[in-house]
Amino acid sequence: MLGGLWLHSVALIADAVHNVSDGIAIAIALAAATLTVRGASGRRTYGWGRVEILAALVNGLTLVALGVLIGIEAIVRLGDPPEVRGAGVIVFGLAGIAVNGTAVAAMWRAARGRQDLNLHGALLHTVADVAGSVGVVVAGVLVAAFGWDAADPIIALGVSVLCIVSARDLIAEPVRILLERAPSYLDPDAIGRALCAVEGVRQVHDVHAWTITSGFDAVSVHVIATPGVDQHALLHRLEEVLREQFAVTHTTIQVDRDHTSPLTIHRMGCPEAPKPRTSAPTLHEHNH
Predict the structure, then answer these.
(1) How many distinct structural domains can be found in the chain?
(2) 58, 103, 130, 157: which could form a disulfide with 74 (CB 3.0–4.6 Å)?
């Protein structure tokens, strides 16, 4: 950052601020990862898994805030670009590429094959750092070779857009998880239909699918069994369907005997489940 002030380069300042924020982001990611491995205890029945999601959300919001601040400064300087020392900017930019490139390579190896939203967020931060450093070098070359001082704030503006765009998924996915919205690959209607196809099922409703933390999905469902069915055996068949067809192993399945009167589900916002007109399995769309 001091180098950017000395060289009058907003692109270099933006890259430096971005690097500092990424250091904070990685520190948050490491702290969250440390907490996540702790098991469930006491009132924390799911452990600290959601800390990873909160950390990813904080990192995403930080990227957006950083992008906005850099963009504002770049626009201000576009009106009256100061004289930038291009050669020094190139040196600092190349140093940034070397340092951040090494970090990206290490984090890429760590993230490969893992479903970790927190680690993915930290990796995005570092990749954006490399892109920012490349932009700094480009700005330095344009200033040193052509005397185009406006290239510096233009590159900085590009870095700000990169920060905001790279934060989109990093914010959207944690928000989806915190709102307990079903992930795109788990369709509650498809789950209900698959369970209805199991022999011994009379009715399926109140299907819920959500994500607790990265790679940890859960499903809960209420099933009405046909008369005379072994409910314990049916439960195992339902668990097998969810495991084999949807790769969900954390399930809560309530199996009841056939009801001779209409079943009322006491859950806010859901209508009373009507009594089936036929003996064929039915799926009531009380899904989330």
Answers:
(1) 2
(2) 157
